[in-house]
């Protein structure tokens, strides 16, 4: 989304420079957030793709290089070195390498073909193909944003879903425990099987084609497929090897998205903008628009508003704007799944919020009162 969005923004500004988009995957144009809505809508992977790489290249008057990982960046000679032995020169380079799934344990070879992460359309294709057209038992490891959205979507698509996580409530990074518990209640009432407060001891082959998850309470959980939704980590290896300033939060950039090397920029999930890495659509889109203006000759700093995260869990609507600092208190009001939680600092000022059920209607009101993510 970041790389294509930047190219589109440049073309909208009338910038006619030569553009090359280099991708390790298929290069199709698609909306990544829609990956966790496809099963409920009965959409095939090809239906999620809005344009092929060829169509995208025609639209943008750009060269699209697909299924071609980049092996190194030669900053001294301004070259991109590809794994196929070819090289690209550049005047300006934008690293929009995103974030990779973080799998905190080893997967045995015997079950690797039944364990999946979904971080792009090619991943989704493999997972969709593995499920086939029959009702499947899917075990999801992780109770964060990706895990909860896919749990809701796969359930709506007719599959039997189990969620396993070490935390005791859902969406622990976004919601105070009472709201996470309310979402869990909605999931349980719908028939999603929750195994919270549980860790994975091992994943092994069972009888036939079964995959068995052994939990730390000695309870085995059988599944046809396992979806690992255990977090993301920015893909910084390429930048780090090139000598750019990086941290575990991403490639360090200033408000103009410039890295520690003046001709190289970072954008999207891999970019840490003045200490903030917001892996969500609105900051990405705002960054792409600002960077396009900068590259087109009008230096424009990125700024992020108080943009709440809309979680795609129709079983119980959720909106969250996590505070950037630890709140002094959470003021929680409501019941029966319709709950507002307001994060306040020691002066009683609103610094974040979380909403479930009917209370999501307050998102505009509270967003106006909350501080900007990056003003």
UniProtKB/TrEMBL annotation:
Its cofactor is FAD. It is found in: Cytoplasm. One of its GO terms (molecular function) is oxidoreductase activity. Its main location: cytoplasm. Keywords: Cytoplasm, FAD, Flavoprotein, NAD, Oxidoreductase. Residues 1-276 form the FAD/NAD(P)-binding domain. The keyword Cytoplasm applies. The keyword Coiled coil does not apply. One of its GO terms (cellular component) is cytoplasm. Pfam families: Pyr_redox_2, Rbx_binding. Residues 303-368 form the Rubredoxin binding domain. This is FAD/NAD(P)-binding domain-containing protein.
């Amino acid at each position: 989304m970041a790389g294509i969005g930047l190219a589109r923004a440049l073309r909208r500004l009338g910038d006619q420079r030569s553009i090359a988009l280099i991708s390790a995957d298929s290069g199709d144009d698609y909306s990544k957030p829609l990956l966790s809505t496809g099963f409920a809508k009965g959409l095939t992977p090809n239906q999620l793709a809005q344009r092929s790489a060829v169509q995208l290249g025609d639209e943008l008057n750009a060269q699209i290089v697909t299924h071609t990982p980049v092996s190194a960046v030669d900053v001294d000679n301004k070259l991109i070195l590809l794994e196929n032995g070819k090289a690209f020169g550049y005047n300006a380079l934008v690293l929009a390498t995103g974030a990779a799934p973080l799998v905190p344990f080893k997967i045995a070879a015997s079950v690797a073909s039944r364990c999946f992460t979904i971080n792009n359309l090619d991943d989704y294709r493999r997972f969709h193909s593995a499920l086939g057209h029959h009702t499947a038992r899917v075990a999801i490891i992780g109770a964060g944003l990706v895990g909860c959205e896919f749990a809701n979507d796969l359930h709506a698509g007719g599959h039997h879903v189990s969620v396993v996580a070490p935390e005791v409530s859902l969406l622990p990074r976004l919601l105070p425990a009472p709201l996470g518990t309310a979402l869990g209640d909605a999931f349980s009432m719908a028939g999603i099987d929750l195994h919270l407060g549980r860790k994975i001891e091992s994943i092994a082959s069972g009888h036939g084609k079964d995959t068995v998850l052994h939990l730390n309470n000695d309870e085995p959980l059988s599944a046809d497929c396992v979806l690992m939704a255990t977090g993301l980590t920015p893909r910084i290896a390429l930048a780090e090897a090139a000598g750019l300033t990086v941290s575990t939060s991403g490639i360090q950039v200033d408000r103009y998205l410039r890295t520690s090397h003046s001709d190289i920029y970072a954008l999207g999930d891999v970019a840490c903008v003045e200490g903030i890495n917001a892996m969500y659509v609105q900051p990405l889109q705002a960054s792409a628009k600002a960077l396009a203006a900068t590259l087109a000759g009008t230096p424009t700093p990125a700024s992020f508003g108080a943009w709440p995260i809309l979680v795609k869990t129709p079983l119980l609507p959720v909106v969250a704007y996590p505070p950037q600092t630890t709140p002094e208190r959470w003021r929680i009001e409501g019941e029966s799944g319709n709950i507002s939680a307001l994060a306040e600092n020691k002066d009683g000022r609103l610094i974040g919020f979380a909403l479930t059920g009917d209370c999501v209607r307050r998102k505009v009101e509270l967003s106006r009162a909350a501080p900007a993510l990056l003003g």
